[in-house]
Amino acid sequence: MQADSIFQTGAFQTGAYQKESWQAEKEITAAKEIEKIDVIGKQPPNLLRKAFYRQEDNFFDLYNELIDENQFRMDCEMRSMHLQSKVKHRACIPRFVEIENARELETAALRSGRLSASSILNAVPDKAALRLTYAKKKKEMAKKMADLINSNPELAKRYTQYVEAKTKFENVKNR
Asked: Is the pTM of this model over 0.90?
């Protein structure tokens, strides 16, 4: 009978130990849930700007590979705000802008009667004609870009990433 009583006492103690262990584990789990901390932060505008530029470059790199006409390729670079300004901003400009500007300057220089370096520097381009040309080319480029995005899944994915990054950056910039 002593063996039985020892066994029962041991079983009781083991059961009590298991019960205490289970309660302790439950308390630790509850404590972990209490200690859970959610951190919500904002990305600094400069990081969002860099992410936007990176996505812009990714999109236009693939776009430039896929587009068949040189005039519709895009060049993104840092440019001065004004001729005498040291302040720079990023601009993505289609190549037709440079092509048409050069063509219009040459035409303006020829109107003076001779084509020389000084006549090109002093030439005044016809801005109204340039605006009409830009508008026409911009429509043509937009159609070609939309066709490429719709026909190429990778370009569509990059375009979506580009738009999302641009939206995030502009939302922070405009606050």
From this structure: no
